[in-house]
Write a structure and sequence with these properties.
The chain is α/β, with parallel strands linked by helices. 39% of the residues lie in helices and 20% in strands.
């Protein structure tokens, strides 16, 4: 068996690679590991997004957990950040989310949170994976009678998360916004929280049918959101992904405002009030150089980590930083939450709009954006590029062509069979040429025909 856990849990085609049997085994192993940490009969909180396979995998995961004596609290459809928040608030021992985030409907995934609302450390994931591997096709007998776990519906607890978001948003009266809910887990929670704070909200892509999640909508496809914002004269638009742990905004003119720009405007606001710990924002190697320049001009700095919100979070916790995230829209407000949260980010952006009285285009415009090209190549084996001589030569040639005024980053996706190529620099034509030269070689060498 290959490595189960990727950068964000276990993912695959539901009922394909991610089988019912695997979900049961993960439930057993996850509950076993978390029971050790709890030192008592453990309780596991489970939420899922709107995929058709969610019911199937929730039943399997819960059955596995109950078979080793864990009690299961079912939230039903809930965002990833809502599960992470409620794990802490309800004082349970673990949380599990069944979601494949921004991936298409046939995919699904399982990820765990510890009792403090943080994603599991690598050591805990390794222990769970070892137990799954050791169990084999059959499991030994477990507890019986009163020692068996039981399940109960706790969907009503989601009101606590809605209250949390609305409270941090403050008074949003007079603000008109559009929410693109990606037919995902935010379809009810996002409009509800922002309306509770006083905003006028129009919700689109908020009618999930189990198959339409992320289909031409959400944070990867903000085109309809942009049109709706313009057509309705709204102040801003907020696009979530399937599990709502990320946010992409659009301004009043329908222009996209990505995670880097969100961090720029919020970081600059905190700097102006002397309220940014270390005068630093934590980003990744993919963050646009414009974010770094924006913060530097205001006396701040950008600290870069490897790609992945878990690495951003790790650096934030180590250094006591309050704001960090990724260009893709995973933004972490460590004072308030333990994970990236699209709804919380929307609330913070909306609050800044309301407080400043300035349009989003002006707030986002403080960040000079350097030309940056991101290209994905579907490949047979995503790690194979590292040992390929022709690909290495193409990368070296691109770096030499750009010199010190550009950056080249090639990496394998953590969740999909893709090699991602990022090229950034001052000259748009040179950047595009460099990116194309690399992706053509990657496609020729290891691409899917």
């Amino acid at each position: 068996m290959g490595r189960l856990f990727g950068t964000d849990g276990v993912r695959g085609i539901a009922n394909g690679e991610l089988t019912v049997e695997l979900a049961v085994a993960l439930g057993r192993a996850g509950a076993t590991v978390l029971a050790k940490a709890a030192g008592r009969r453990p309780r596991m909180l489970i939420g899922r997004d709107t995929r058709r396979s969610g019911d199937l995998l929730e039943a399997a995961l819960a059955a596995g957990a109950m078979s080793v004596g864990a009690d299961v609290l079912r939230l039903g459809v809930a965002t990833t950040p809502a599960v992470a928040y409620l794990v802490r608030v309800l004082d349970v021992d673990a949380g599990a989310v069944i979601s494949a985030s921004h991936n298409p409907a046939p995919y699904n995934g399982i990820k765990f949170f510890s009792h403090d609302g943080y994603k599991l450390p690598d050591a805990a994931e390794d222990e769970i994976e070892a137990l799954v591997a050791a169990a084999g096709p059959t499991a030994t007998a477990g507890p019986v009678g009163a020692e068996l776990g039981y399940a109960e519906d706790r969907s009503h607890e989601l009101v606590r998360y809605v209250d949390f978001i609305a409270h941090l948003a403050g008074d949003l009266s007079g603000l008109r916004v559009v929410c693109d809910c990606a037919h995902g887990a935010a379809y009810e929670l996002a409009p509800r929280a922002l309306r509770q704070a006083g905003a006028s909200v129009e919700a689109i892509a908020a009618a999930p049918d189990g198959l339409n999640i992320n289909d031409g909508c959400g944070s990867l496809h903000p085109e309809r959101l942009a049109r709706t914002v313009r057509d309705t004269g709204s102040h801003a638009g907020f696009a979530f992904d399937g599990d709502a742990d990320r946010l992409i905004a659009v301004d009043e003119a329908g222009r996209v405002v990505d995670g880097d720009q969100v961090m720029a405007m919020l970081g600059a606001d905190l700097l102006s009030r002397g309220d940014l710990p270390g005068d630093a924002v934590v980003g990744t190697v993919m963050s646009n150089l414009g974010l770094e320049l924006c913060l530097r001009a205001r006396g701040g700095s950008l600290l870069r980590t490897n790609v992945g919100d878990r690495y951003v979070l790790e650096r934030m916790r180590e250094g006591g930083f309050a704001l960090g995230g990724e260009q893709s829209g995973h933004i972490i407000f460590l004072r308030h939450h333990t994970t990236g949260d699209g709804l919380l980010t929307a609330a913070m952006v909306a609050a800044l709009l309301r407080r400043s009285g300035r349009p989003l285009s002006e707030l986002a415009g403080i960040m000079p954006r350097l030309p940056q090209v991101l290209q994905n190549v579907r490949v047979r084996q995503r790690e194979a590029w590292e040992e390929n001589a022709r690909i290495s030569a193409a990368i070296m040639a691109a770096r030499e062509a750009l010199g010190e005024r550009g950056r080249v980053l090639v990496r394998a996706s953590g969740t999909e069979p893709l090699v991602r190529v990022m090229v950034e620099g001052e000259d748009d034509a040179a950047v595009r040429a460099a990116a194309s030269s690399i992706t053509e070689v990657v496609a020729a060498e290891i691409g899917v025909v």
